[in-house]
Design brief:
Blueprint: E1 5-9, H1 17-26, E2 30-34, H2 38-46, E3 57-60, E4 63-66, H3 68-78, H4 86-107, H5 114-139, E5 141-142, E6 146-147, H6 158-173, H7 182-192, H8 195-200, H9 213-223
Parallel strand pairs: 1-2
Antiparallel strand pairs: 1-3, 3-4, 5-6
Helix pairs in contact: 1-3, 1-6, 4-5, 4-6, 6-7
Length: about 230
């Protein structure tokens, strides 16, 4: 296998989007294989490429990696985005997993009925503003006037990247959601000014748009689900 990093998924966000974000921040070029047919998924299974019969699949350093958390941790560790010691890493993991909980609620929105979507959106907004964002508002604010630049230690980590990602996802659904969280909003602004992130946020980058009906249809077709 060549030195190329190859991502196999759908042409959409889903669980792969955080992996795209992290690779982009690390400055790693990658190629994508976008599944559109059930036969493509069946071939991956028959080739033994999917350990638990699930995507995302990331080919990197001669390995075929599955399971989102494992992939993110490997990339973070390889590119110095995973803290300096065990204590920093466990904090990074806690913050990242909290963010993932919230992300996964938003990821499921395209797959629920229109009738249920309004209630689910209300639930997401309530949990975001009462349970999740306040944690980060507090962590990023030290004393009366000092704001820290990163969630853990004194350097950028995968937790910072995922926090930025979720703030942008939330603002797509609730444009004013950060108005009561000025410290998180300031953090978002600092993160967006980093050159690698500026590049990833530009039109034409490998960042995916919000999922549409075609994305949902493709997921159902690839997995041969009925809906």
């Amino acid at each position: 296998m060549s030195g190329k990093v190859v991502l196999t998924y759908f042409n959409g966000r889903g669980k792969m989007e955080s992996i795209r974000w992290l690779l982009a921040v690390a400055g790693v070029e990658f190629e994508e294989v976008n599944m559109t047919k059930h036969e493509e998924y069946v071939k991956l299974l028959s080739d033994g490429a999917l350990m638990f019969e699930q995507v995302p699949l990331v080919e990197i350093d001669g390995m075929k990696l599955v399971q989102t958390k494992a992939i993110l941790n490997y990339i973070a560790g390889k590119y110095n985005l995973y803290g300096n010691d065990l204590k920093e890493r466990v904090m990074i993991d806690m913050y990242s997993e909290g963010v993932r909980d919230l992300m996964e609620m938003i990821m499921m929105l395209p797959f629920i009925s229109p009738d249920a979507k309004k209630t689910k959106l209300e639930d997401i907004e309530r949990k975001a503003t009462s349970r999740y964002i306040p944690v980060f508002e507090k962590v990023l604010h030290v004393g009366t006037s000092v704001q820290v630049h990163y969630l853990v230690g004194y350097q950028l980590s995968c937790a910072d990247v995922q926090l930025l990602e979720i703030t942008l996802m939330l603002e797509e659904k609730f444009p004013t959601i950060l108005s009561k969280f000025p410290v998180v909003k300031a953090f978002q602004g600092r993160m967006k000014s980093l050159p690698a992130i500026q590049k990833f946020l530009q039109p034409g980058s490998k960042r995916k748009p919000q999922p549409d009906d075609l994305y949902v249809k493709t997921v159902y077709e690839v997995f041969n689900f009925k809906h």
